[in-house]
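Team,

Forwarding the record for the chain on the shared tracking sheet. I've put the sequence and predicted structure together so nobody has to dig through attachments.
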Amino acid sequence: MSLLKTMEISASGLTAQRLRLDIIANNLANAETTRTSEGTPYRRQVPIFREILDQVSGMPRGVEVIGIIKDNSPFRMVYDPGHPDANLEGYVLYPNVNPVVEMTDMISATRSYEANLTLITSAKSMFLKALEI
């Protein structure tokens, strides 16, 4: 595999992980949003990735985001009768966003981003060494 293809694969990984980080930040920002324009609490979003394969050789060419889905896990119910969105029994539906899960995903995405960046830096260094020869 050439160094240029390696850099292309890593660049697609950087793009995918950046989007993943954006979605995680959006989830965290809406962790307490009890009413959206749809009238329901915010639903956690999750990106779906797919490996891109070369048509001829079957070798990897990168990764792409094929969609962003909504997590259908149940909402949290919290007893808060004074809340404007409380039902008749006094319970409020809160988003299905768990900050611990989001922070864990954020660490994973950050590490993946760093790994791809390190690979690009290494390939760049190899190019420069080859030019010195």
